[in-house]
Structure formats: C-alpha cells, structure tokens
Amino acid sequence: MWSLFGSMVEGTGSTFSQTRPALLRYAIDRDSDLDQIFDIDADTGAIVTGKGLDRETAGWHNITVLAMEAGPLIHPEVLPHPLED
C-alpha cells in the first residue's frame, strides 16, 4: 500500500490536565524525519504526507511530534506509522 502526497496520516489531539486549556503549537522533530516525508499543521497537529509513501521501500516510519505550550514546556510524542497492504 502507498499513500499519495498530501494524504492525512494522523491527528495528535494532545490534551493536558490543566485548569485552563493550553495554547499548543505542533512541530515535527526534523531529526526524526530527515527526508521530510511528513508535514504537520502547527495549529491543529494534523499530520500529512509531504511525499508519497511506498511500503516496498519503507514499511514503517517513526516520527517525533513536539507539542509546545505557550510557555517553556515541550511534550514529545512518538507516532509509529506502519504501512499495510
């Protein structure tokens, strides 16, 4: 199976137990995605493919998503993404 460029992959939907909702910004740790295969919407955390995916060349991708609060806290979240037939 392969994914077309721009296909929706995952939404992070990170939540934190706080008394007030946090203003979060999302980013991909580029050290975990050197070929820049994935893109992320900084406001929503929606992840899309920046390039086409092909299970024949790589059956699994691990990227690290950073959720940054409007303060100094950063919460990395690893999202494994297997490609299936």
Describe the structure.
With 85 residues, the protein is mainly β. It has a single domain, classed as Sandwich (Immunoglobulin-like), CATH 2.60.40. It contains no helices and 8 strands. The chain has a 3-stranded antiparallel β-sheet, with no helix packed on it. Strands 3-7-8 form a 3-stranded antiparallel β-sheet, with no helix packed on it. It has a two-stranded antiparallel ribbon with strand order 1-6. Strand 7 and strand 8 form a beta hairpin. The termini are close together. The N terminus is likely disordered.
How are helices and strands ordered from N to C?
EEEEEEEE
Low-pLDDT segments, ≥5 res: 1-5, 14-19
For this structure, what is the CATH class? Mainly Beta
Q: Any idea what the CATH architecture is?
A: Sandwich
CATH superfamily: Cadherins
**Kindly state the mean pLDDT as a whole number?**
74
Which range does the strand content fall in? over 45%
> What is the overall number of helices?
0
Distance between the termini: 5 Å
**What is the topology, as strand order, of the major beta sheet?**
2-5-4
Structural class of the secondary structure composition?
Answer: mainly beta
Any idea how many domains? 1
Helix/strand layout:
Layout (H helix, E strand, L loop, with lengths): L1 E2 L4 E4 L12 E5 L9 E3 L5 E4 L3 E2 L5 E10 L4 E9 L3
Antiparallel strand pairs: 1-6, 2-5, 3-7, 4-5, 7-8
Quick description:
By secondary structure, the chain is mainly β.
